[in-house]
Specification:
The complex is a heterodimer of chains A (308) and B (192).
Chain A (H helix, E strand, L loop, with lengths): L2 H17 L15 E5 L6 E2 L12 E3 L5 E5 L6 E2 L6 E3 L11 E3 L18 E5 L4 E3 L3 E8 L4 E3 L7 E2 L4 E7 L3 E10 L5 E10 L4 E5 L6 E5 L6 E4 L3 E2 L5 E7 L5 E6 L4 E4 L5 E7 L9 E6 L5 E8 L3
Chain B lengths: L32 H20 L2 H17 L1 H4 L5 H14 L2 H4 L24 H11 L3 H13 L3 H8 L3 H19 L7
Helix pairs in contact in B: 1-2, 1-4, 1-7, 2-4, 4-8, 6-9, 7-9, 8-9
The chains are: A mainly beta (308), B mainly alpha (192).
């Protein structure tokens, strides 16, 4: 075992020890694939599907102590109109007798019940609200609830990963930019998330020559992350491409893909280039190559190995 | 550069490491989510901690992954390795800039009443903290491969399943990562 292996093993052990006392939230995630039903002890009116959905958190439902509350599954959603009473816990699932009123937890709506009026959740994770930058574009990353589409101030569609993570590049104007992304689910419900990003003019520096009192104002060097591909396809074996661009001097550029990657350090003049081999690339099947700047900015390219 | 790479006919252009016959569907009994959650929670928090470096955020990241798994448990639970699915989500959440504001993920707030208000993860010794800091500075896939290899003792094949790449790619990630780590940490063992 090498020194690195020993260090890695001991560091892994330290992680295990550090989380050994983390409490597992008991019932932290309750299954919600059941529908609650409520039998009111007094008269009530029923509202249609357009009525406001009652907020049901975990397995609690708002009802009076005199009400009978039962769980069932796959029932039709109807909603009592007045629900301002204290909460009670539900009982276990049962058949739906006559006279019971089903109440659909929001988590179930959209999967098993009609009348989905719950908006999808969307969050912008980075950059922070109020971020200042001198760059002309910025990478925005966020999270959206499963199945929802995301749109925003981008040239093309926003790519949403299977884990709900999405990313988009947004062009910025000088000054305050309100960046708004919208999530839309299959039922047409939508929600928005917004941040303010300030694009500042490049900073200036003022120097005074010691020999006289002349003041010279010069624009400080600025940088902008750019990335370009050279080929996009290659028939050589192993196939490769050359990526190049600009960025912050001294920081790292990394190139990743399913079939190979690489990296380099940006030169003092702000330019970089890296030759990346895709030794395991499948023939004639395009795949995604992502170029990352140190600050999380990303450019995406496609590459195809095209052997003759 | 404008010269296009010359063409040569490869002898083995396809990925030869994918050995499994995936054409035969396998029907599996779905483990109760609660049992899966209780069994995997701490180790997933550990993975999130190693890759995010955030004591307060690691539990949130883990919870987020489990929420995602819970929402589609009918399918995820039937996978051969649902734990691999959760780790893939955690790896991506942790390494990305999610860690910066993971605690603000709105979905997590549903569980706010069930979680402690402060991080319950212990401090790492300086040496381990230094090691994982170096891991987090690796390229994303390399960091994930190292964490899964050393922290979870996963095989190259398992890591390939989690990261959705070929075993050879994992080997390359591990090789490059070890070399970089050995250099940065000034220790031997870089597979040079």
């Amino acid at each position: 075992m090498t020194t690195l292996d020993m260090l890695a093993r001991s560091s892994a052990k330290a992680i295990h020890q550090s989380v050994s006392f983390v409490p597992v939230p008991v019932g932290g995630i309750a299954r919600t694939s059941r529908v609650l039903v409520l039998k009111r002890s007094m008269s009530y009116a029923l509202a249609g599907a357009a009525a406001a959905v009652i907020a049901v958190i975990a397995m609690l439902v708002v009802a009076t102590p005199a009400d009978e509350v039962t769980d069932v599954t796959n029932t039709t959603a109807l909603t009592p109109t007045t629900m301002a009473e204290p909460s009670v816990e539900t009982t276990l699932p049962a058949e739906l007798p006559d006279g019971l009123v089903p109440v659909v937890p929001p988590e179930v709506i959209g999967e098993t019940a009609p009348g989905d009026v719950t908006p999808p959740q969307i969050t912008i994770v980075s950059p922070d609200d109020g971020t200042h930058t001198t760059r002309s574009s910025i990478s925005v990353t966020g999270f959206v609830e499963d199945g929802a589409r995301v749109s925003g101030p981008t040239d093309g569609p926003v790519d949403v990963g299977s884990d709900g993570v999405w990313q988009a590049n947004v062009q910025l104007d000088i000054g305050e930019n309100r960046v708004v992304f919208t999530a839309i689910d299959n039922a047409g419900n939508f929600a928005t998330a917004a941040i303010i990003v300030h694009r500042d003019a490049p900073p200036t520096t003022t120097t005074t020559k010691p020999s006289d009192t002349t003041t010279t104002t010069t624009e400080a060097p600025s940088w902008e992350f750019t990335a370009h591909k050279t080929y996009g396809t290659c028939s050589d074996t192993p196939p490769y491409d050359i990526y190049y661009g600009t960025g912050k001097p001294g920081t790292e550029i990394s190139v990743t893909s399913e079939y190979g990657g690489g990296g380099t350090v940006i030169a003092e003049n702000g330019e970089w280039s890296v030759k990346v081999f895709f030794a395991e690339a499948p023939a004639n099947e395009g795949f995604i190559v992502k170029v990352y700047h140190f600050d999380g900015a990303k450019k995406t390219f496609e590459f195809t190995y095209t052997p003759e | 550069m404008t010269v296009r790479p010359k063409h040569r006919v490869p002898q083995e252009a396809t990925d030869g490491d994918r050995e499994e016959d995936e054409s035969v569907p396998v029907v599996r009994a779905v483990e109760p989510f609660e049992r899966f959650y209780a069994r995997e929670f701490r180790s997933v928090v550990g993975l999130a901690y190693a890759l995010s470096g955030s004591q307060s955020g690691a539990e949130d990241i883990a919870q987020e992954a489990f929420i995602a798994a819970h929402k589609k448990w009918d399918s995820v639970g039937s996978y051969e390795k649902p734990e691999a699915w959760v780790r893939r989500v955690v790896s991506n959440l942790s390494v990305s800039r999610f860690r910066r504001r993971a605690s603000e993920l709105k979905a997590i707030t549903r569980l706010s009443g069930l979680r402690s208000e402060h991080a319950s993860i212990g401090e790492l010794p300086a040496e381990a903290d230094h090691f994982w800091s170096a891991v987090r500075r690796l390229p994303k896939r390399q960091a994930q491969a190292i964490a899964l290899h050393y922290l979870e003792d996963y095989s190259v094949k398992d890591i390939a399943d989690i990261l959705e790449c070929s075993p050879n790619t994992v080997k390359v990630h591990l090789h490059k990562a070890r070399r970089t780590l050995a250099d940065r940490l000034d220790v031997d063992g870089g597979d040079a």
